[in-house]
Amino acid sequence: MVTQKLLLTGASGYIGGAVLSALLKSKNPVIEGLEISVLVRSEEQAALLRSNGVSPIIFKGFDDLGTIQHAASQHDGVYCVE
């Protein structure tokens, strides 16, 4: 079985953090098998998320379209929480 990759935005915010937490706690086999990446704006956020098994991608903000487009193209799905 091929690992599905999910890109999540907004993971350092209140709602996005709750979504990420629910995904990481899920016992659903499909969700458990996801490789989750998140867009973050700082190395501090990246380090915290990395320690929880999430792959951080540092970007400058939602105006950083090149990084966002590249990241999205490397994933099977994108979930945007603003």
* Domain tally: 1
Strand fraction: 15-25%
Name the structural class.
alpha/beta
Tell me which oligomeric state these chains represent: single chain
Gross morphology is globular
Any idea what the radius of gyration is?
12 Å
Order of helices and strands: EHHEHEHE
Q: CATH topology, anyone?
A: Rossmann fold
Helix content: 40-55%
Total E-strand runs: 4
CATH class wording: Alpha Beta
CATH superfamily: NAD(P)-binding Rossmann-like Domain
What does this structure look like?
The chain has 82 residues and is of the alpha/beta class. It has one domain: 3-Layer(aba) Sandwich (Rossmann fold), CATH 3.40.50.720. Helix content is 40%, strand content 23%. It has a 4-stranded parallel beta sheet, sandwiched between helices. Strand 2, helix 3 (43-50) and strand 3 (55-58) form a beta-alpha-beta unit. The radius of gyration is 12 Å and the shape is globular. The mean pLDDT is 94.
How does the SSE layout of this entry go?
Blueprint: E1 5-9, H1 14-25, H2 29-32, E2 35-40, H3 43-50, E3 55-58, H4 65-73, E4 77-80
Parallel strand pairs: 1-2, 1-4, 2-3
